[in-house]
Specification:
543 residues, alpha/beta, 4-stranded parallel beta sheet, 16% strand, globular
């Protein structure tokens, strides 16, 4: 009850009447000519920043209705985005109404919706999950979908749709905004940056919401495991963490807990490391600790590691294209599938495929995600690595290079953090993103993402505005075709968070330097309850 009554803090620029200040025209992060040709009506828009409007004494505006969609995987704080959006449009005009489309973008297409009233909203303030309206992964990319959606938007007199999602969901928002703008139907589309993976960010989107909470949840459990590890002194814990396309979660959790070993996929790719080299490195750490009498430790593994090992990346890329072109593959039995793959891959990739343990090779050919890519979360990388490390240690023992005992345990932390009650940071940030989205609607913006910056400062000093979604886009191969998508932000190997980690990892490997963060604190001193992620802290100049 007390948590539901927490009042998130807004940037002072959003208090009362605001005006939108235009910045310079923008361009896409890459492939400018291709993106401009695909988005002629929403490309090149200026950045927007909201400031107090000295000409107006209070916030006011015309009556309008808004639709909201939760898209993709859950992330802590989604309910506060909707709460902020609701309060924002009501502050503009009390007659404004908010409609939630149920179970993701499919709710818009299929006309499944509910009006979100104050009674409903108040039940969900500061809570985790997306259960207020549910989420889904339907892709909005076909004109017939846009037209079906337009029917219900007109029927409900909806002026704007706010899509709360990750990079693919906001790519869909950009496509939808372009379509409605080209047809001049008067429907605006605004995006909000959501993903616990932390890979939707740039100078104007300093972090995606949910990352702060999820990594604090994972770090609590990792800390608990490390306390147990240091107590029993007989287990090596191999812990896989969510983060398919980037290692931000693994890096953040390493900075919070100081494990003995943490793999950063981007570094693996940059150094052209093989799977055997990674295994040998981990085994070397195990052996050095064993020589000190420490037959225990923790290893953090990013979910998407397999795709960053160059040989595996090449194999997976060819597999994705091969299976996209042969839908009949799904109807074959396991033996026939393996034979089909080996007969149709290039020689080098066929050799890589054949060298894998049968179970891992099989997992690489299972059902694809909606974008045609292998579902790396199904690959039990933590078990693969521990098994290979165990085999390497046997070889080292026979050679007299290892004298300890190796007892591995396995964990995968993903869903445990996606729907946690948001930290104070995420509660404030998400509420501000939603309230800010209402101002973007009010000023007539479309094809924009809600942006709140300056996040390591007190929330009253945060900078609110909007960034054109096209500014974040490039062309990438999806399902065998080149398509416009928001460029994922990978771990910067020259960035301060990684450099901080790199400067400490040798010490953490050999010694037991564990930190035990404990559970998220919601009530108490601001320096305890309102702290940002370590990643954001170091990126913004922290020492």
């Amino acid at each position: 009850m007390a948590r539901s009554q927490y009042q998130p803090k807004l940037p002072s620029s959003l208090w009362g009447a605001v005006k939108a200040v235009q910045g310079e025209p923008t361009q896409s992060v890459a492939d400018q000519e291709e993106i401009k040709a695909l988005f002629p009506n929403t490309y090149g828009l200026p950045e927007l920043t909201f400031e107090k409007d000295p000409k107006q004494s209070k916030l006011a505006g015309a009556q309008f209705n808004v639709g909201v969609i939760l898209s993709g995987g859950q992330a802590p704080g989604g309910h506060n985005v909707i709460s902020g959006l609701f309060d924002g449009i009501k502050a503009i005009n009390k007659a404004n109404r908010l409609y939630g489309f149920l179970m993701g973008p499919g709710g818009l297409v299929d006309h499944n919706y509910v009006e979100l009233t104050s009674e409903i909203i108040d039940e969900y303030r500061n809570t985790g999950g997306f259960d207020i309206i549910g989420s889904g992964r339907t892709k909005l990319e076909k004109p017939e979908q846009f037209e079906k959606g337009l029917v219900i938007l007109k029927e409900l007199n909806i002026k704007a749709v706010v899509i709360i999602g990750g990079d693919d969901s906001n790519t869909n928002a950009c496509v939808l905004a372009e379509y409605y703008k080209a047809k001049n139907v008067g429907i605006q589309v605004i995006g909000c940056p959501k993903t616990i993976d932390g890979d939707l960010k740039n100078e104007m989107i300093e972090t995606s919401f949910g990352f702060d909470t999820a990594t604090k949840v994972y770090s609590e459990v990792i800390g608990n495991i490390q306390r147990d590890c240091n107590s029993a002194k007989k287990y090596w814990h191999f812990i896989k963490l969510m983060g398919r396309s980037a290692s931000h979660i693994a890096l953040e959790c390493a900075l919070q807990t100081q494990p003995n070993y943490c793999i950063i996929s981007e570094e693996v790719e940059a150094k052209n490391m093989t799977l055997d080299a990674i295994v040998a490195d981990i085994a070397g750490v195990v052996a050095k600790r064993a020589a000190k009498g420490d037959n225990f430790g923790t290893v953090l593994i990013p979910e998407g590691l397999i795709e960053f090992i160059p040989a595996m990346k090449a194999l997976i890329a060819e597999l994705n294209d091969l299976l996209a072109a042969h839908p009949e593959f799904a109807g074959l039995d396991a033996a026939a599938q393996r034979e089909f793959v080996l007969n149709n891959l290039s020689e080098a990739n066929a050799a890589s495929f054949k060298s894998l343990p049968a179970g891992v090779a099989r997992q690489l050919t299972l059902d694809r995600d909606p974008h045609g890519n292998v579902q790396v979360s199904l690959i039990e990388t933590e078990k693969l690595l521990s098994e290979m490390v165990g085999n390497k240690l046997k070889e080292m023992k026979e050679a007299g290079e290892y004298v300890g005992k190796f007892s591995p345990l396995h964990h995968f932390f993903g869903y445990e953090g996606r729907c946690a009650a948001p930290s104070n940071f995420d509660a404030d940030y998400c509420y501000a993103l939603g309230y800010n989205a209402a101002q973007l609607v009010n000023c007539g913006a479309t094809g924009y993402m809600s942006s709140v910056r300056n996040l390591t400062k007190p929330s009253v000093q945060w900078i609110a505005g909007g960034i054109p979604i096209t500014m974040m886009m490039n062309m990438e191969r999806r399902n065998g075709e080149m398509k416009p998508v928001i460029q994922k932000a990978l771990v910067d190997l020259d960035g301060k968070p990684f450099n901080k980690f790199a400067s400490k990892r040798e010490e953490w490997a050999l010694n037991t330097c564990y930190l035990y963060p404990g559970p998220i604190q919601y009530f108490g001193p601001a320096e305890v309850c309102d702290q940002t992620s370590r990643t954001l802290y170091y990126e913004q100049g922290g020492k």
